[in-house]
Amino acid sequence: MNNFSELDISTAKMKRSDIIIDAIKRMIVEQELKPGDRLPSEKELIEQFHSSRGTTREALKSLEILGLIERIPGPKGGTRVRAVGSHEAMQSVANFLHFQNVTAIDIYSVRVFLEPMLVENAVGHLSERHINKLEEMISISQKYLEGKMSRMQCRKAELDFHDIIAHACPNRFLSFQCTFINYILYHFLYIESIESSLGREFAQQNLDYHIKILACLRDQDRKKARDFMAAHMEDAFQYIVSLKAVVGNSLISIQDL
Fold it and tell me: pTM of the full predicted structure?
């Protein structure tokens, strides 16, 4: 890693802690470090960058919050590379979108394109465990319509159905995009009339489509799976408009309320 004195002059106006953060990120990339690999100690970083203990700890704390490193106490511990978790990544993007006035229509305008592509990519990659989990989600939706489950439990199962397909998709970028949309829909989408007759009709339609899509996944019928998912998303879009769904103006998850 470059010494502080050797860093490009463009860093002159940066906080020294930010310079350390960028240097550590660069080290992870250039040295192809993997989760669990050890990074320089706090003492080594202080010497490397001629920085104070407080500045160095500020940089490390920022990296820890970002999820890029973990600091393990004890003689065998130290600072190590950590894989950024999907929840942390989603929360960061959600925080950004909070200030962008994103609407339910914006979200579904994208979802109608991504979900058919997702299920098509996932065909042939679902294990028996995935199939069993999809059946479980369908069962929860059925129990709601029978009056044995709450609407919130049903709504979570509806979105989990799509998450399970996303987890089986080999295209990890597409998988993350769809999982993130489901995260936003579950945590921040508010439907005041969800318990209305129209809301129950929406739940019934979701269930019907999920049963058809699961059958396609079992048969590994890529075209039918895509076609059913496309119809599912178009119809869901119309229900979301009719139910006047809105994206909550809050960074707080509904699970934290």
Answer: 0.75
Phi, then psi, of 130 in degrees rounded to 5: -60, -45
The CATH number that applies at residue 49 is 1.10.10.10
Instruction: Tell me how far apart the alpha carbons of residues 179 and 192 are, in angstroms, rounded to a whole number.
Output: 23
Contact of 205 with 118, CB cutoff 8 Å: no
Domain, as residue range, for 75: 4-81
| Helix 197-219 vs helix 128-145: crossing angle, to nearest 10 | 160
Residue 80 φ then ψ, to 5°: -130, 155
Of 81, 96, 112, which closes a domain?
Answer: 81
Same domain, 142 and 49: no
Q: What are phi and psi of 79, to 5 degrees?
A: -100, 125
Q: Phi and psi for 38 in degrees, rounded to 5?
A: -80, 145
Q: What is the pLDDT of residues 193-208, one digit of tens each?
A: 888 999 999 999 999 9
